[in-house]
Structures are given as structure tokens and as C-alpha cells.
Design brief:
12% strand, elongated, 519 residues, Rossmann fold, alpha/beta, 20 helices, Glutamyl-tRNA Synthetase, domain 2, 3-stranded parallel β-sheet, 4-stranded antiparallel β-sheet, single chain
């Protein structure tokens, strides 16, 4: 347990996203580390919605937060749908609580109303910058009496509420970064609210953390500049200050801070769901964005992460978001999955690719896992209108389980089983052969395979009748490459014998005949 944590105090951490856009992968990392910390110490993990920005906050984005947490299987203890003893867990529903604390600051003269117009503030800012000074508020409205402030408010003058900031050095002990010192003279008097019941982020955050008995604030390094401001607000209110832990930045491949607009990395958790990443792979991957077990292990379940997680194993430097590594994790978990489950998960992507349709006579969104009744109904090939059973789908998908990195790739990989293949004749030729040799090779393939009994049509039988000739040619590619292209229409695919087995005798022979026509 962290040495700063009192043994008789329950650990309480919170994830406090703003519902102003889709749930970001960086927020998912923060949620995971809060979850691991809470579970490690038998504490509580709270989800609090910070919707003080009422113009940009939307219900749909709050729902995306809930959906992402459910998908990642990060089960929280309080907040959102679960509620709890310290609600409401939406800032927009806590106005009365904020008003009490804001009025306390105004009454104690720790805060005051500021009536400076945007034009005045801009003029003063430009003047300071021209003199090479840090642009901080002048403190002009500090001198107003309560009566003067009341008169201005009654007259309808627009105002905000500022916290008085006395020049000093604020020292914060970060559980990861150690002691951090801040010169708050560089801030000036900070704006903390638009009105007594409409706080800005830093004030609402401090009040909520205290009211919800948060013991540890675990968040991204980008919040470091907020920490001294929150420290000052808590001090002015006489509130306990939680332990802070600022996680390292997530960096892109160029070691720049990962941006929501970075084209090399999907920003939204929903993007990873749509691309066919598995939640266990994403959790495993993002756990390594700032944490390391201290040995060579890479594969961790959520339960194993809880067991092994510790602050001491967190890194201080930025963490590289390596997409190929994420693909590696995802491929690993796909390979460990049962074929039935993988087939169930692949079906929506095959439907989306336009290859099959479910035979249930409805058009609603397809669930990810199908019950036994649905399996019996099966599917229809959209091109040929042939019936396709669940078992047939499973057999097709089994050919690609070892090479599949994302479920969304499955449509392109298996389309050869659902529609006619098209390809230029040039790719039929193996690199060490002449085009003139191809007709004889295709003729041999057709005549030999025609003699295979349909009930014996399987990978082993096909290998037994074709491999001797392939070996006799001295270069197996001269026989196997034209067969691969003929049956798949691709230069990269599953093995030709495996594809031929799934296609069946009739379709395999049809495709070899088509290859002859292509020539």
C-alpha cells in the first residue's frame, strides 16, 4: 500500500469524464488505472460526470462513457447508473452544494466578484505581454466592497467570481513524480465560478472530491497545471486535500503528445469496438501505457492486473501508443478464443461487409452473440442466395483464426467464399515459371481433381493427390501457386488445400475452369 495512505482509511478514487464528446482511449487508460488501484486496496471506484460545460455536454456522450466502461468490463462502485451515498454524480445536479461553498468563499473574502469586461482584460493582458510580463489579472476588483459589488450586480453588470491568490510556493507530493513546487504568483487571482451556483471545473472538482470522500486523484499529466489551483481552493475552504498521482502522457510514434486528431491512432473507444478489437486485448494493451510488471510477462487478465498492479511499477516518462503492438495483443486473444465464439463475433462484420444476411426476417441491429435458435435459422449468401449454416461459417473463419488481427478484417479475408473471384491473369503465374506453362498446369489440376470422389474431398486427400506432382516439378510453387490464385483470386490467402476443402469439389473445379478462361 502507498506509504502516504492511512491504514484505517478506505481508498476511494474517481474517474471524472466530461460528456462533451466520445469517450477517448486516453480516458479509458485513466479509468483502468483508477479501477486497478481501487481493487488492489479493496477500495471504491467512482464515476462522476463533470458536465459543468452545459452547452457542450450531451446525453449521447454520457451514454458513450457508460458503453465504453461496460465494454472494457471496468465495473465501478458508485456513480452514473449505480448511484451511491454521495450523489448526485452529475455536476449539473449539484448546484445547491456548490452554492454553499462558493458563498462561504465570498463571505470570508477569500473570493470576490470581478466585473472587468473582456475588452478591459484583453487590454491589460496585451500591456503586460508588451512589457515582457506574465499575463495575470491586475486585481482591480479586489478593492470593491460588498456594497459596491451588490450595486453592480443589481445594475445588471456581468461578472465572474475570482479566488484571491497570495504569492507563495505551493508544494504538492505526487505519488509518482514526487514533490512538485509551483509558484502561484504566476497565476494571479483565478476565476473559479460564473455565479454562486455555477462553478468552473477547478472549484467543482475540489468540492466534489471532498464531498465524495475521494482519497486519491489519479489522472493524466495534462492536469498538472490544475493541481496547484485546486490546492489553493481547498486551502481557502479548509478542506482536506487528496493524494495526487499524475500518469505519464501517452505519446504517438513520433513521441509527441497523442492528440484526439492524430490520424495514426483511433481516438474513440467506439472506434476500437467497430474495428473488432477485443476488450481484453485493449485492457491488456493500455495497462502497459505507463505500467510494467517488472519482468518479461505481457499477457495479463484483468484479475492478474489487479494482483500485480502497484504505484512503484508505474513509469514517469511518456508511454508510446504502438498500434502494431495492440494488433499483436488482439491477435493473441483471437487465437485463444473458441471457434464458436469467434464465429459469433465475426458475423456482424460479415453482415456489414454485405456478404451474408441473417435468416430471421428482421432488420434490427445484429447482436454480437447469437442464441441456439438463431444458429438453427442460419444465413443467406447475399450474392448466390444459397443457405449458409453456422457450421459452414465457422469452417470458413477457422482458416483465418491464426492470421486475424482485427475482426473487421474478416470480410475482406473471406469474401472469396461468398462471391465470384476476379483477378488479372498475370498473378496466376508463379515467379519461377513462364506463362506458357500455365495451361498444362491448370489442365493437370482440373483432370486430377475431377477424379477425387466427392465424399473423400478434404484437405488430406487433396494433398495426397497433388503433392507428388508438385514435388516432381522440382518447385512446388509451379503447381500450388496457380491453384491458390485460381481458388482464392488472391496472392495472399489461406492454404489452397484448406480453401478447396471449404469450397467443395464443384466450386473448386468451377474456379479452375475460370482460371483457364482468364488465360
Amino acid at each position: 500500500m502507498p506509504k502516504e495512505q492511512k491504514l484505517n482509511q478506505e481508498v476511494r478514487v474517481r474517474m471524472a469524464p466530461s460528456p462533451t464528446g466520445p469517450f477517448h482511449i486516453g480516458s479509458a487508460r485513466t479509468a483502468l488505472f483508477n479501477y486497478l488501484f481501487a481493487k488492489k486496496f479493496q477500495g471504491k471506484f467512482i464515476i462522476r460526470i463533470e458536465d459543468t460545460d452545459r452547452t457542450r455536454s450531451k446525453v449521447e456522450w454520457e451514454e458513450s462513457i457508460q458503453e465504453a466502461l461496460n465494454w472494457l468490463r471496468l465495473d465501478y462502485d458508485e456513480g452514473l447508473e449505480k448511484g451511491g451515498h454521495f450523489g448526485s454524480y452529475r455536476q449539473s445536479e449539484r448546484s445547491e452544494i456548490y452554492q454553499k461553498y462558493t458563498e462561504k468563499l465570498l463571505f470570508s473574502r477569500e473570493a470576490y466578484y470581478c466585473f472587468c469586461t473582456p475588452a478591459e482584460l484583453e487590454e491589460h493582458r496585451n500591456s503586460q505581454l508588451a512589457q515582457g510580463l506574465a499575463p495575470i489579472y491586475s486585481g482591480k476588483c479586489r478593492k470593491l466592497t460588498k456594497e459596491q459589488s451588490a450595486q453592480k450586480k443589481e445594475a445588471g453588470d456581468q461578472c465572474v467570481i475570482r479566488l484571491k491568490v497570495t504569492p507563495q510556493t505551493v508544494v504538492v507530493n505526487d505519488l509518482l513524480k514526487g514533490q512538485i513546487e509551483y509558484d502561484v504568483a504566476l497565476f494571479g487571482d483565478i476565476v473559479i465560478a460564473k455565479s454562486v451556483d455555477e462553478p468552473l471545473y477547478n472549484l467543482a472538482c475540489v468540492i466534489d472530491d471532498f464531498e465524495m470522500k475521494i482519497t486519491h486523484v489519479i489522472r493524466g499529466e495534462e492536469h498538472l497545471t490544475n493541481t496547484p489551483k485546486q490546492f489553493l481552493i481547498a486551502k481557502a475552504l479548509g478542506l482536506d486535500i487528496p493524494q495526487y498521482l499524475h500518469l505519464p502522457l501517452i505519446l504517438n510514434q513520433q513521441r509527441a503528445k497523442l492528440s484526439k486528431r492524430d490520424p495514426s491512432v483511433a481516438a474513440k473507444v467506439s472506434d476500437y469496438i467497430e474495428q473488432g478489437y477485443l476488450p481484453e486485448a485493449v485492457v491488456n494493451f493500455i495497462a502497459f501505457l505507463g505500467w510494467n510488471p517488472g519482468d518479461t510477462r505481457e499477457i495479463f487478465s484483468l484479475e492478474e492486473l489487479i494482483q500485480d498492479f502497484s504505484v512503484e511499477k508505474l513509469q514517469k516518462s511518456g508511454a508510446i501508443f504502438n498500434v502494431p503492438k495492440l494488433d499483436w495483443f488482439n491477435g493473441y486473444y483471437i487465437r485463444q478464443m473458441s471457434l464458436d465464439k469467434l464465429t459469433n463475433l465475426c458475423v456482424p462484420y460479415l453482415v456489414k461487409a454485405g456478404l451474408i444476411s441473417p435468416l430471421w426476417g428482421k432488420s434490427e441491429v445484429i447482436p454480437l452473440v447469437y442464441d441456439s435458435n438463431f444458429t438453427v435459422l442460419g444465413f443467406e449468401n447475399n450474392k448466390t442466395k444459397e443457405k449458409v449454416s453456422f457450421n459452414q461459417l465457422a469452417k470458413i473463419i477457422s482458416l483465418y483464426q491464426e492470421r486475424l488481427k482485427k475482426l473487421a478484417e474478416i470480410g475482406e479475408l473471406v469474401e472469396l467464399f461468398f462471391e465470384e473471384v476476379e483477378y488479372p491473369k498475370e498473378i496466376l503465374k508463379w515467379k519461377k515459371m513462364e506463362m506458357a506453362e500455365l495451361p498444362a498446369v491448370l489442365d493437370f489440376l482440373l483432370k486430377t481433381l475431377q477424379e477425387v470422389n466427392e465424399k473423400d474431398w478434404n484437405k488430406e486427400k487433396l494433398e495426397s493427390v497433388l503433392m507428388p506432382e508438385a514435388e516432381r516439378l522440382g518447385d512446388r510453387g509451379k503447381l500450388l501457386w496457380p491453384l491458390r490464385v485460381a481458388v482464392s483470386g488472391k496472392m495472399a490467402s489461406a492454404g489452397p488445400f484448406e480453401i478447396a476443402e471449404v469450397l467443395g469439389k464443384e466450386k473448386t473445379l468451377q474456379r479452375i475452369k475460370k482460371a483457364q478462361e482468364v488465360l
